[in-house]
Every structure is written in C-alpha cells, then in structure tokens.
Amino acid sequence: NSKDAEQLRAKLILEGLPNVHSRRVTNSNGSIWYQVRTGPFDNRSQLNKAQDRLVRLNIQPLLRQID
Q: How far is 20 from 9, CA to CA, in rounded Å?
C-alpha cells in the first residue's frame, strides 16, 4: 500500500541511496502496485554498491536499464 511504499522510500533515503522515489502503478487488469525506485546511477560501481546495500537490507533489487 502507499504507506508501506513511503516507509520503504524513507528507509532507503536514510541508507543513502540516491534519487529514491515512489509511484502508484495500475497494471492492465486494474491491480494497483506501488513502486519504490532509486537511481539512475552514473557508473557500474555505484550501481553495485546500491545493490549490495539493498541485499543487506533483505531487499531483492530488480535492475532496470533506461535507454
């Protein structure tokens, strides 16, 4: 729900992850999801550090490349 997404967003900001934001997404069957995203990252090293930080927080990161 939106409250959980905002709590996770705040936690990631406190962990020092860059550009953390959340948004509401409605998929094709009408289900509502809340995404919490971070990035983009300037280089692979920053991306790897962020992924490591998320794993330490028991969060499985999903990598999405932006063209």
A: 6
| Stretch (H or E) spanning 48 | helix 44-56
> What span, in angstroms and rounded, lies between the C-alpha atoms of 18 and 50?
9
Q: Can you tell me the distance from the alpha carbon of 20 to that of 40, in angstroms, rounded to the nearest whole number?
A: 10
Here the tokens at position 24 are 């509401």
pLDDT at 26 (0 to 100): 95
d(CA 23, CA 45): 26
- What percentage of the chain exceeds 90 in pLDDT? 91
46/19 Cα distance (integer angstroms): 13
